[in-house]
Amino acid sequence: MTHFIGLTGSIGMGKSTTADMFRDFGIPVWDADAAVHRLYDVGGAAVGAIGKVFPSAVVDGSVNRAALKDILKADPTSLETLESIVHPLVKTDRDAFMGQQTGALAVLDIPLLFETKADAWLDTVLVVSAPANVQAARVLARPGMTQETFDMIRSRQMPDAEKRVRADVVIETLTLDDTRRAVQNLILKLTGNTHA
What we know:
It contains 9 helices and 7 strands; from the N terminus they run βαβααββααββαααβα. It folds into 2 domains: 1-28 and 103-196, 3-Layer(aba) Sandwich (Rossmann fold), CATH 3.40.50.300; 32-100, 3-Layer(aba) Sandwich (Rossmann fold), CATH 3.40.50.300. The relative contact order is 0.21. The radius of gyration is 18 Å and the shape is globular. It is of the alpha/beta class and 196 residues long. The mean pLDDT is 93.
């Protein structure tokens, strides 16, 4: 039976980098953000439903994220409508991934893991973390990122301190080597596989 690790962490904490490290060790990873991209793309399962509710958000057969962001900014209540369309489709995508797993471990990369109560059904919850000054430096170095946008994103996410308390495992992502070693050690601990 596959052991499912839920991977989460606030913006700038190194979640995507850590997910890639699991892939490098041969562990399958499902990515919630990538699933949404697939759903929004041409032929994606969310395009028709979003187009019915927010016609201006669909451009050339796919959901235009910038147009969607403008709609959500103009009417914050529309987020609930959007989530009622997208969340069930994301769950279907995730369930399909989980149903295909036959190995010892698989990772589910879920940004809003605690917020969506996924910790209730995952085998292990892994939180990646870094000091606040490191997080801020990483995020503000991203193209187009402003302090205002960073503050808004952070305000929507559960505080890092709370995530750390609720996690089964916390990996500090200060250096790539230390992070990779921590990922490898976790794989060894959960599988007993000395070849990871």
